[in-house]
UniProtKB/TrEMBL annotation:
Key words, A-Z: DNA-binding, Nucleus, Transcription, Transcription regulation
Domain (TFIIE beta): residue spans on this chain: 14-98
Places the protein is found: Nucleus
Organism phylogeny: Eukaryota, Fungi, Dikarya, Ascomycota, Pezizomycotina
InterPro entries, per database record: TFA2_Winged_2, TFIIE-bsu, TFIIE_bsu_DNA-bd
Taxonomy, superkingdom: Eukaryota
Purpose: Recruits TFIIH to the initiation complex and stimulates the RNA polymerase II C-terminal domain kinase and DNA-dependent ATPase activities of TFIIH. Both TFIIH and TFIIE are required for promoter clearance by RNA polymerase.
Gene Ontology MF term list: DNA binding; TFIIH-class transcription factor complex binding
GO cellular component term, pick one: transcription factor TFIIE complex
GO biological process: transcription initiation at RNA polymerase II promoter
PANTHER family attached to this UniProt entry: TRANSCRIPTION INITIATION FACTOR IIE SUBUNIT BETA, TRANSCRIPTION INITIATION FACTOR IIE, BETA SUBUNIT
Name of protein: TFIIE beta domain-containing protein
Amino acid sequence: MATLKRKMGDVPVAVSEVSSGREIMTQVVYAIEYLKDKDRPIAFGDIWQYLSIPQDQQRHRPALLKALMAHPKVEYISNKQGPGGQHTFRFKPIHNVRSGDELLAYLQRQKTAQGISVKELRDGWNDAQATIESLERKGLILVTHNKKDNSPKMVWINDKSLTISVDDDFKQFWTNLRLPTNDSDIRSELERAGITPTSQVKDTIKLGPQKKEKRRINRKAGRSTNTHMSGILKDYSFKK
């Protein structure tokens, strides 16, 4: 019975599928970086053209389209909504913010006051830092900065309803206050105000050695006899 022999140049089906999968995922990574850099919706045809897929890999086009549609870092716009009836994609950032107005609205919707990381905002928003600096100068947001390069670090909405006016006299009084320069002066100031400093040395009470009570042994009075030997032993107690 004749058997079919595989030629040296043939590739097993399983190995071929694994290799194809790796090639597709590599192209997905390149496509996502391209979308992130452009920061706008891009048709799948333009993405395919940018990737410059070799002619022998054109069969991967449907698989790449499906992979992009399912990727969590990609926003998919169906061909019914996309321009020219094409499948369109856009990079999906951590925070869906791409302008100053969107940032203000996004900050106002926050339920906590923990702030938003500027590093996360820059993910997919190329003009994030310049826009944040502009909003800060206008007093619309509150910003903390990195000590190294003074770049924006965290942002909050500047709630004007929390703004209060302070008299100039109180500002001057507060500015003129001087704190003690060392721990000793701080302790003295607290004691002068009748406050016990936490650093004050507490007197320890030394207890003397305690006497141990002697244990009393309860001795029962009376004479004990061996009643079971009464017929054998003689009683000599009368001679005492």
